[in-house]
Amino acid sequence: MQENIINQSKNITLLEILDRVLNKGVVITGDIVISVADIDLVYVGLKLLLTSVETMREKRLAIVKTSQETK
Amino acid sequence: MENELIYVYCLSDSPLRLDHVSEQESLKCLMFREFYTVVKQVSLDEFSEENMKRNFADVPWIEIHARDHIRVIGEVMKKSTVIPFKFGTIFNSEESLGKFIQNYSGSLTENIENIKGKEEWSVKIYCNRTLLNQQIVKISDDVRTLEQEILESMPGKAFLLKRKKVELIEKEVQKVMQICGQTCFDELAALSEHTKINNILPKELTERTDDMILNVSCFVNQGRVKELLSAIGELLKKYKNVGFDIAVAGPWPPFSFISIKEK
């Protein structure tokens, strides 16, 4: 059986999980619409409020310029 | 079914086995056309639009369900290639989910083909600036030259040069961080089919004392995973002494490399 991240899931922070599951994967709303504002609520709860997307962008290294490149 | 909604975890183009998945009794595998989905029935009390909005403000609720979401997908993907759905994707009925699959079938097939044989790994690079500041004199010729000049200067000039040294150290630290980040990224990109840069997470959330300087998801051919992990080990050896650390985790469900958006 292939081992994966789930085997260590207790050690993964909630933030790491949310960073993946909230806005990635099949990003369609289904029938129940959870808006971006509601997702922000999660982050408020996690005190991520302090780090708006803009702040995070500023902190990125210049290498992000190459970020979306694929081989 | 009355008072129940369909919560979707993931989808595949081949039959999905659940016998190895823990807490499988609440899960169901539904087939639509050539696709198979793992779903569970959830109650309106928890997952109706209004109730879910309320629950999204409740961190313990989020934690339980987000961990469940990733656990189930992770366990299913041990045996199959799956497309993960965003946490909290809910359909009113099986018919409604079937309609979505019908509408998006081309895109779903394309995405499944893209993710077959590949694994998503997350790589985060951290920098201990205090240590790097201490080590910079060993790394930077310019800092060493300036230090020598300070030693050989009269007190007045030495005072001014010391101020210059503070600025130079900051500049050199930034330069080393840039080089380290770029070198690591280039190496990761060379071994990956695709890469995606994610947001840098602040210390209060990483609960680490060092700064995250790069947060990247790598999509790697399964045959090259060992090579990737070994390369990361080598990078860590190379940069550890000057204050860098690399945290690697995976394989994740391929959340970062799915491209299916609302039409």
Fraction of residues in helix of chain B: 40-55%
Describe the global form of chain B: elongated
Q: Counting H and I runs of at least 4 residues, what is the number of helices of chain B?
A: 10
* Straight-line N-to-C gap of chain A: 30 Å
**Total beta-strand segments of chain A:** 1
Q: Determine the CATH topology of the largest domain in chain B.
A: Alpha-Beta Plaits
Largest sheet composition of chain B: 5 strands, antiparallel
Mean pLDDT of chain B: 92
Largest β-sheet summary of chain A: none
Name the helicity range of chain A.
25-40%
- The helix/strand series of chain B, from N terminus to C terminus, equals EEEHHHEEHHEHHHEHEHEE
Largest interface: A-B, 56 and 76 residues
What is the strand content of chain A? under 5%
Our count of domains of chain B comes out at 2
Ranges of chain B where pLDDT stays below 50 over 5 or more residues in a row are none
Integer-rounded radius of gyration of chain A: 15 Å
Number of domains of chain A: 1
Query: What is the CATH class name of the largest domain in chain B?
Result: Alpha Beta
Structural class of chain A: mainly alpha
